[in-house]
Amino acid sequence: MDHGWMLLAAAVAMVPSDAGSDASQVPYPEGFRRWAHVKSQLVTPENPRAGRFVGLHHVYANAQALEGYESGRFPDGAVIVFDLLDVHTGKGTTDEGPRKFTDVMLKDSRRFAGTGGWGYQEFEGPARERKLDAEKAAACSACHARLAPDDHVISTFRE
After folding, report:
1. Domain segments of the chain: what residues?
2. What residues contact 97, with CB distance under 8 A and at least 6 apart?
């Protein structure tokens, strides 16, 4: 089982440590639901580390990010989206509920040179309210930095 969401949770929850990417430079990824679906995961309240990450996780990649999943190096313009939805369970089914938040990674080696080439942002709910300032985005980067051999990317493409 891939526990990438837990790493993402740690990145978002970390206390900022230093200057990093300007999160305001990471736009909402319009139309991302039409991109390639990388993988999904259901996290339930029984997981002791789930916290605010209880729900249905979907990861999406634009065309440039797909190149990165194939080659191991993500080109500028790659965008990876982590979309977290609430769930409703009953009568033997689990259905998607409202969107909780959407996390976005944007590769731009020039603009985000200090954070491994990646910019980070979180958009809350359907209103798409920005939740990360530059310091919190730097905390995301600090967590992802340990994945430098994988170009700072937690998820892997599910064939």
Report:
1. 4-150
2. 55, 85, 86, 87, 88
pLDDT in tens, 106-140: 999 999 998 899 999 999 988 788 888 878 887 78
4-150: in CATH 2.60.120.620: no
Express each pLDDT in 15-53 by its tens digit. 333 334 566 689 999 999 999 999 999 999 999 989 989
